[in-house]
Amino acid sequence: MAAVKQTVEHVQSLERYKHGFVTDIEQDFAPKGLNADIVRFISGKKGEPEWMLEWRLGAFERWLALEEPDWAKVSFPRIDYQDSYYYAAPRAKEGPKSLDDVDPDLLETYKKLGIPLKEQEVLAGVVGAPRYAVDAVFDSVSVVTTFKKELAAAGVIFCSMSEAIREHPDLVRQYLGSVVPVSDNYFACLNSAVFSDGSFVYVPPGVRCPMELSTYFRINAENSGQFERTLIIADKGAYVSYLEGCTAPMRDENQLHAAVVELVALEDAEIKYSTVQNWYPGDPETGKGGIYNFVTKRADCRGDRSKVSWTQVETGSAITWKYPSCVLRGNGSSGEFYSIAITNGRQQADTGTKMIHLGADTRSRIISKGISAGRSSNTYRGLVSAHPKAKGARNFTQCDSLLIGKHCAAHTVPYVEARNGHTVFEHEATTTRLSEDQLFYARQRGLSEEEAVQLLVNGFVKDVLQELPMEFAVEAQKLVAISLEGSVG
Amino acid sequence: MLSVSNLHAAVDGKEILKGLSLEVPAGEVHAIMGPNGAGKSTLSYVLTGRDGYEVTEGSATLDGEDLLSLEPEERAAKGVFLSFQYPLEIPGVPALTFVRTALNAQRRARGEPEVTAPEFLKLVRARAGELKIDFDMLKRALNVGFSGGEKKRMEILQMAILQPRFLILDETDSGLDIDALKIVADGVNALRGPDRGMLVITHYQRLLDYIKPDRVHVLAGGRIVASGGPELALQLEREGYDRYARAA
C-alpha cells in the first residue's frame, strides 16, 4: 500500500504544476484533452525533429476520421478522449546520467515493483549472475537505461524511443510504422499521434544480444493514458530476447493504455518477445477502475528464415484487447504465440494472435491457455491465413480454456483462411472446468484450497510457462496464483 | 484411535449414514464390507471432509480430537489419508511435484521443516522401488494415462511417503489384476504398525486374503449391522449381503 500512497503523493505534486502550459516550459503535464496543439506540445516537449511532428500530426488527422472499433467481445462505457491527460512526466531535474542521478523515490517505487535496478548494476560484475538491461518507463519518460555501455560494445542500440528519434533518426524513419502503419487501427493511430515514449532496440547483423533486454511499464499519474511505442529491429542473423513487464497502481478511474509494438526480423534473425502484464484489473465486485489495455503488437518476419516468438502472461487490466501477430513474409520464416490469459472478478479479455502466412514454407504455432474465474469473460480470437504464394505453409493451434466457478465465460473464435491448396492447418481446442473432484483430491493430500487451485492451474498452463525465460517464469507462476486468489468458494 | 459415534450424514438432503458407530484402535486393521449403496464411500468422504456431505448428527474423532470441524487439508495434516477408489488425473503436474507439494504442505501445517529436494528424491526412489514403480513414471503428470493398476500403486506410493496415521482404503482392489493386487497389498501391509490404524472398505472378500483384517464390519442401510472377526468376511462371501440388506 505504501507504493500507492507514494503514487498519490507524486500525483498531487504533479497537480500543482498543471497550470499555464503555454508559458511555463518547466511543467510536467499537458492539459486534459486531445487536439493538434497537444500533439505539438508532446513533440515539442520531447525536442523532436520536424519530420516526427509531421508524422504525428498526420496520424492525428487520420485518427479524427476513424471510428472506435466494436467487434471485440468486450463492453465498456464510451471513452471520453477529451477527458484524459496525454502527457505526464516525473519532475526530473535534469536527464539522469546514471542510476545515482535518479530520484531515489522513483528507484524505491521500482524496487517495490520488484525491479532491483540498483542490484542489477551490482550484479553486472558477477560472473554467471543473471543479467538484464532494463529500460524503465515511468509514465511517459524513460527514466533510466542500464547496461548501455556493454550493449554499445556489442553494437546493440537499446534506448528510449525519444532518444532513438534524436540519436538514430535514420533507423527510426526507416522502420517506424513499417509494421503497424499509422492508420492500421483506431488505437494504433491514436498512439501514433500522441505516443509518449517506449523502447527502441536495434541489433546489428550477426550479433546475438549479450543479455536479455527488459522494460517495465508503469502507469502512475491519474487519468493519464499511456501510449508507449516500441520498435525492435533484429538485422540479418541477429538474435534478441526482450521482456516486458507492466503494472499500475489502484485507481477509481479507468485508464487507457494504447501501446504499439513493432518487431522487424530480417534474414535469419530471431526475436523473442515476452510480456508479463498485471495491470490493475479494477474492483473485483463492481469492475470499477482498472486499465483498458488496447494494444497493437505485430512482428514482421521480413527476411527469409526469420523467426519471431511472442509469449504473454496476461493477468491484469479491466479489459484486454490484444493480438500479438506475425506477418510471415520471408520464405521459411516462422512465428510462435504462447499465451496465458487469466481473467477474474469482472475482467474482460479478448486476446489471441494473427499468423499471416505470405511466404513459402512458413510455419506457425499457437498455444493459448485461457483461464476464467469470478464473473469474467475470456475470449480467444485468432486468425491463421495463407496467401496464394504461401505454398507449404503449416500451422498448429492448440487452444485450451479452463473455467473456475459457475459465473465466468470462455469463448473461442478462430478464423482460418487458406488461399492455396498446399497448406496444413491444425486446430485443437478444449474447454474444461476446474473439477471439484480434483480440488478435493489435492486437499485430501494436505494442500489448502488455494494451493490446490494454484497447482492445478499451473499444471494447465505449463506448456506456456516453460517458454518464458526462467526468472520470468517464476514471477509469472506467482502472478497466476495472485490473480486467482479468492476465485474459489 | 478412530472413534465414530452415531454418525448421520446426508447428500443433497438425502440421509445416507443413519447412526453409524465404529471404533478402530491403534494398531488394528478393520474392514468395512457391504452391498452397493450401503454408504461405504459416503463414510470415507465424510471422514475426510468432502464438500456436499453434510453431517447432521454424531461425532468422529481421531485420538480424541474432533475431525468433523476440520477442513480436508487439516485432517490430512493430522494424518488421515484416503486412498481413492478412482484416483484423479492431474494434467500438467508431475507426480513428483504433486507428492512433494503435499508432503511439504502437511509438514508446514504441523510446524515441521520442509523436506529438501535431495531428501525427497531419496525417499521417493526407495519407496517407488518397493512398489515396482518406474521412477520415470513419476516425472509424468500424475495419473494421466496411467492404467488402473498404476493409479492404485500411485496411491500407495503417496501413502508410503506421507506416512499417515490413519488410512482409509476405498475399494482399493477394484480394477486390479492379481499381480497388481499383491503389490498393492504388500505396500499396505508394510505400513501396518502399532501406531497406525486402517479402515479397508471393500465389496469383495478377495482383498482381505492379502490384507488380513483384525475386525470385519458389515455396513448396510447406513449403519454397522454386524461385526466380527475375519471369518465374517468369508461368511459374507458365501452367503452374500441379502440377509443384512433386508435387516437394514
Overall 3D shape of chain B: globular
Helix/strand/pairing category of chain A: alpha/beta
Helix/strand structural class of chain B: alpha/beta
Oligomer status: heterodimer
Using only CA atoms, what is the Rg of chain A?
A: 22 Å
N-to-C SSE string of chain B, H for helix and E for strand: EEEHEEHEHHHEHEHEEHH
Mean pLDDT of chain B: 92
Number of domains of chain B: 2
How far apart are the first and last residues' alpha carbons of chain A, in Å? Answer: 26 Å
Number of separate strands of chain B: 10
Largest interface by residue count?
A-B, 23 and 32 residues
Q: Low-confidence segments of chain A, ≥5 residues, pLDDT <50? A: 1-27, 92-96, 115-131, 139-144, 218-224
Looking at the structure, the CATH topology of the largest domain in chain B is Rossmann fold
> Could you give a short account of the major beta sheet of chain B?
6 strands, mixed
Strand content of chain A: 25-35%
Strand content of chain B: 25-35%
Please name the CATH architecture of the largest domain in chain B. 3-Layer(aba) Sandwich
Helical coverage of chain B, percent range: 25-40%
Helix amount of chain A, in percent?
Answer: 25-40%
Could you explain the architecture of this structure?
- The complex is a heterodimer of chains A (489) and B (248).
- Chain A has helices spanning 2-15, 36-45, 50-65, 104-112, 117-123, 148-153, 161-167, 169-175, 186-194, 436-444, 449-460, 462-465, 470-483, and strands at 132-138, 141-145, 157-160, 199-203, 212-218, 229-234, 239-247, 255-257, 260-265, 270-278, 291-301, 307-314, 319-322, 325-328, 334-343, 348-357, 363-372, 377-386, 394-403, 409-418, 424-433.
- Chain A is of the alpha/beta class and 489 residues long.
- In chain A, strands 3, 4, 6, 8, 9, 11, 13, 14, 16, 18 and 20 form an 11-stranded mixed sheet that branches. In chain A, strands 2-1-5-7-10-12-15-17-19-21 form a 10-stranded mixed sheet.
- Mean pLDDT of chain A is 78; it is low at 1-27, 92-96, 115-131, 139-144 and 218-224.
- Chain B has 248 residues and is of the alpha/beta class.
- Chain B has 2 domains: 1-88 and 165-176 and 191-248, P-loop containing nucleotide triphosphate hydrolases (Rossmann fold, 3-Layer(aba) Sandwich); 90-145, no CATH class.
- Helix content of chain B is 38%, strand content 26%.
- Chain B has a 6-stranded mixed sheet with strand order 6-7-8-3-9-10, with helices on both faces. In chain B, strands 2-1-4-5 form a 4-stranded antiparallel sheet.
- The A-B interface holds A 435-438, 440-449, 451, 455-456, 458-463 and B 48-51, 71-73, 75-77, 81-82, 84, 87-93, 97-99, 101-103, 105-106, 109, 141, 158, 162.
